[in-house]
Write a structure and sequence with these properties.
- The protein is mostly helical.
- 81% of the residues lie in helices and 0% in strands.
- It contains eleven helices and no strands.
- The longest helix has 28 residues.
- It starts with a helix and ends with a helix.
Length: 208
Amino acid sequence: IKYFQEYLATGEQKHRYNVMKYMAVSCINVKDYEQAKRVLSDAVALNSSDYDLLTLAVNVCIETEDNRQLQKYVSKALNLKPNDQNLMNLQGKLSEESGNYAEALKIYKSLFSKNPTSLTYAKHIALNNYNLGVLFTNKASLENDRRIASQYDNQALLYFETAIPVIKDVLSAEPAALQYHQALAVAYQMTGREKDFDAENQKISNLG
């Protein structure tokens, strides 16, 4: 690493990019992730079309839980491989964590269409529909214009209605998944299904 640093300090351009890559790998090997991220950032600035380099950067950001930088590299990698399912899954998770549930839902619906037996993707579809229902319910409650509030309520209802069968599918596979029972209970309540709501609350109570 010392010799890589000395070369880069000279300002020499001929082998600069490759030296950066080798230095980044060396830093990763000794778990010096912060220095690896700095070198990778400089290398990506020189060449953002190197998929292997972007993969290195993505993995380091995952290791260090640096979602801000991770988003940058995932976006660049998706520009090169827009149908890569691992990248799509990463982008879906990042969208969820940033509260962009509509974008996450779109991604996971696409992934689920290619993997229709995936419980993982079904879970994401269920919760993103549910979260969008909650989001539009909250927007309706804060809206002073009745017409707009009604539109938000209708949108929320649609998301809750869509979430219910998917949540039920998830619970068929994982009947003790408390988070999904709770989401289902709220969805029943928000769609006026009081008997189903009461029954679901009883299941939640039985789960403890």
